[in-house]
Design goal:
By secondary structure, the protein is α+β, with helices and mostly antiparallel strands. The longest helix is centred in the first third of the chain and has 18 residues. 29% of the residues lie in helices and 25% in strands. A 4-stranded antiparallel β-sheet has the order 1-2-3-4, with helices on one face. Keywords: Signal. It comes from Sulfurimonas crateris. It holds the Pfam family DUF6488. InterPro entries: DUF6488.
């Protein structure tokens, strides 16, 4: 009986702690979670795109030679009626010419929406 009471008390304590992890906390774009309703600046887009580039390297999606590459340009484009930022990175050390340009897409609110070599 004593063990049952201890187990129930422990279960209640664990359950109560999850109640405090509700919507009262926030994640910002700095940590990869953005629920922002404020449009980000071009400079912020460059930072977000660079962070995504580093993540692609870390996940072995692209070569480490991209690590020192900075965005060559950023511009806003319309995709399906929605405006997005496109950051362009160029790495001339990549042998495949079709893969020398990497496009990172960022919503107006700072969320990465994709990356590819085509820009589409």
């Amino acid at each position: 009986m004593k063990n049952l009471l201890k187990s129930l008390a422990l279960l209640a304590a664990i359950s109560a702690t999850t109640l405090f992890a509700g919507s009262g906390h926030s994640h910002d774009a700095e940590h990869g979670h953005s629920h922002a309703s404020v449009k980000v600046s071009e400079e912020k887009v460059k930072q977000i795109a660079k962070r995504e580039l580093q993540g692609l390297i870390k996940r072995s999606k692209i070569d480490k030679s991209w690590s020192s590459i900075e965005a060559q340009s950023t511009e806003k484009k319309s995709f399906g009626g929605k405006m997005e930022w496109v950051a362009v990175f160029i790495n001339e050390s990549v042998k495949d010419v079709k893969k020398q340009k990497l496009y990172v897409f960022v919503s107006e609110y700072g969320e990465v929406t994709g990356a590819n070599y085509s820009g589409k």
